[in-house]
Amino acid sequence: MHIVIVNRWPRFTEGVRWDHELTRYEEFIDHDAHQVSYVVDRVGATGVLAGHERIASMVEVDDISSYDHLRAAVTEVTERVGRPVDQIITLSEFTLDAVARVRQSLGIPGPGPDEVAVYRNKVRMKEILAEAGLRVPHFAGCENVEQTLAFAETTGYPLIVKPVDGAGSIGVHLIQDEKALRGLWKTREPGGYEIEEFITGTVHHVDGFADEDGTIVFQVVSRYLNDCLSFEGGAPLGSVVVQRGRLRERIEEFTQSCVSALGMRGMPFHMELFVTGTEELVFLEVAGRIGGAEVPYVIHKLFGVNLFEMWLKSLVGEPLPPTPKNGDPSGGWVIIPKPRVLPAEVVSSVPMSSMVDSVWRELVPQPGDVIDGSGGYDSLQSGRGIVVHDSEAQAEADLRRLMDDFRVEFAQGRRVP
Fold it and tell me: Is the dihedral of CA 212, 124, 64, 334 positive or negative?
């Protein structure tokens, strides 16, 4: 089989950074049994660790999220290798759409734009789930200003406006009143956005894997401490793994219902949902990829399950590795956001592990380090940490202490948070 891997991620191997260390294409895809080519950008090239002799071809592009660039690169790979591409693999949400279009245009097997829209387009996924009788926020695609104002009048404020294909709460707006909604449309066109009911509740995320039959063979339920939208506004973000109980069981059952209704098969998922004050479960959104931030690393540490290994082996038709879920541990992660004024040079910092004993791994900038605006959750933030504990309550307490008390001092005298 001729496999093309589209990679935009670096790989850190020195031990201080752990980002993307679980990806390991060269280990989970047999580069000797298959002809494996890569399409990368400048950063992604550093994440290809297979030896040159094991790679059929590698093409670097300027914009790896561009359909035109990707199509040209895959065409070049085909010509270089001298055989058609049997499969294109991409693990990043930001390249799923372009890769789906390349598959369709070049006749390569795999999910096309309509299939990918189920877990990329926030309007389409809610339409499917609503038709299946599952609770979703009241929503609508944004067509024009007057249509969104009419939706708001019927639904009531506050409301959420978000890109239909966004990720990581980028471009999400909390709209408090009509003035704010009209003001938003003065700065952008409504097309490409979704408007939805504001749900009051605690946001949970569920991360796992659905087999070829759509049965979830492994899942972990976690609860956000704060939320992604607040993080975009400068507040710390955390998450704690939920231990066994009736609420977790209900969330797992709800997740299976959503995954089944969406027809997600042979893939990982990262689903978010609300638990309201009356413990009603309300779908928020789902992504057909592995959760970001520290999610896969917490899961691997607690349960020994590498979701990247599961996904890659599934894609090439190999048996899924075992997914034992022994015991009922907890743990979680915290990210202290970058300062608002960037770049910023660090003057002083203290280890997170000096504050709480449960810290397993941390990335704290050192004096002299300069934090810039590049990257997302997996960049050098003001602080990142992972805790491991046998108690959900204690893990949450430790994470909240880090969120409340951790400080980094910057050269301009600014402290975070």
Answer: negative
The pTM assigned to this predicted structure is 0.93
- And the tokens for 367? 């004096």
- Residue 343: asked if its preceding bond is cis (omega within 30°), the reply is yes
Q: Are 364 and 333 in contact (CB under 8 A)?
A: no
pLDDT, tens digit, 9 for 90 and up, residues 316-338: 999 999 887 778 999 999 999 99
In this prediction, residue 168 carries a pLDDT of: 65
Contact 293, 336 (CB under 8 A): no
Terminal CA-CA length for the chain:
50
> Residues near 13 by Cβ (< 8 Å), separated by ≥ 6?
21, 49
Cβ–Cβ under 8 Å, residues 7 and 58? no
Strands 2-7, 87-90: parallel, antiparallel or unpaired by DSSP? parallel
Strand ranges in 267-358 using DSSP code E only, listed in sequence order: 267-275, 281-287, 330-336, 344-349
Q: What is the dihedral of CA 252, 253, 259, 260, to 10 degrees?
A: 150
The Cα 330–Cα 156 span in angstroms is: 38
Collapsing DSSP states into helix, strand and coil, what is residue 221?
A: strand
User: What phi and psi, each to the nearest 5 degrees, are found at residue 190?
Assistant: -65, -30
Q: Mutual orientation of helices 295-303 and 307-315 as an angle, nearest 10°?
A: 100
108 DSSP 8-state letter: -
Angle between helices 178-185 and 145-155 (to 10 degrees): 160
Partners of residue 384 on adjacent β-strands: 335, 363
Q: Which residues pair with 37 in a beta bridge?
A: 4, 57
Say which residue the tokens 């608002």 belong to.
Answer: 340
Over the stretch 12-28, which tens digit does the pLDDT of each residue have?
877 788 999 999 999 99
User: CA dihedral defined by 69, 71, 72, 74, rounded to 10 degrees?
Assistant: 120
Rg (CA), the chain: 22
20: left (phi over 0), alpha (psi -120 to 50) or beta: left
> Phi and psi for 415 in degrees, rounded to 5?
-115, 150
Residue 271 has pLDDT above 80, yes or no: yes
Q: Which residue has the tokens 């004993």?
A: 357
CA 129, 133, 134, 137 torsion: positive or negative?
positive
Q: How far apart are CA 180 and CA 173, in angstroms?
A: 10
CA distance 221 to 201: 16
Question: How far apart are the C-alpha atoms of 359 and 298, rounded to whole Å?
Answer: 12
393-408 mean pLDDT = 97
